[in-house]
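help with this.
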Amino acid sequence: MSMIDTHAHVFSAQSAFIANARYRPDYTACVEDYINILDDHGFDQGVLIQPSFLGTNNEEMLSAIAKFPDRLKGVAVLDPMVSPTELETLNAQGILGVRLNLFGLPCPDLRQKPWSSFLARLSQFDWQLELHAPPSFLIQLLPQLSPYDLDVVIDHFGRVDADLGIADPDYQQLLSQLDPRQHWVKVSGYYRLDHKQHLQPAIDAFHQLINCGMRERLVWGSDWPHTQYESQMSFSKALHNFETIVDNADLVKKIITENNARLFQF
């Protein structure tokens, strides 16, 4: 089966960053460089994730997908008031989901309009909803999403708090709420879970996810180009440390091929 990377970003130093961006990269991460990295590591396909600092302007990501439509798909950032017509257009352009990056933002009430209408439309397109948020937000949002027939993808292990670790009551509550019939977890971005980028918090979280019955619902992404960690990280290092975290070659292969392909419809 194909090897798939489910989490990467493209942008340029001249990108139109949103006014309240928490981070503004001063370099370019172009799609050609990303494809070369995939080739160098034997990966067949990748999923581009719209970075938060570009807001709802998905044009750079869409342009990248258009250059390599057989190899790339995307997860967009959209205004919940987006029209069904625009969703149809994006669907035809290789978009298969929406990301909510809630760091630095208040936790929304997804039971209220326009969110409720938006989520219903996503279900109609068989799209996924990707959540990048702290555990304290996730434990509020997952119950609100349970009525919808859509995959809910939790970014970066559920973003274990770097100070509290997996013993954090909110993280433990998150684990108790996981339902393998609806939820997926990206076991990626381990370096965002610990101030010194140690592997142990990710190892501990991984084992707890397995104990929660999520073996079939774990996916991996490189998080290339590792925004805010560029000088310490690389695709090779992210992949190697993922293999160390899982510590089971068969399960590593299953996640990167079978699980990734099933969620992202490759």
Summary: The beta strands are 4-8, 45-49, 72-76, 95-101, 128-132, 152-154, 183-186, 218-219.
